[in-house]
Amino acid sequence: SQLRIMKVVGNLSATEFFTKHGGSSLLNDADTRKKYSSRVAELYKEELARRVKEDATKCNFRAGEYENLS
Predict the structure, then answer these.
(1) What is d(CA 12, CA 10) in angstroms, rounded to the nearest whole number?
(2) 5, 53, 57, 70: least CB-packed within 10 angstroms?
(3) Structure pTM?
(4) DSSP reduced 3-state for 13
């Protein structure tokens, strides 16, 4: 969901990720198409998807814990 993505994105700064993965020059590039279709952007999207999935799994596990208490 969008809320989960927003939650996860708050924990991972795009600026930090781009810098760490050699994409710092793209951050100030006026060509947004270039920036958002770059390899670093694809890696960032993959990382976000991984974190969203991980967060969803954790939340489902916690929900299951409470269901098993009754």
Answers:
(1) 6
(2) 70
(3) 0.68
(4) coil
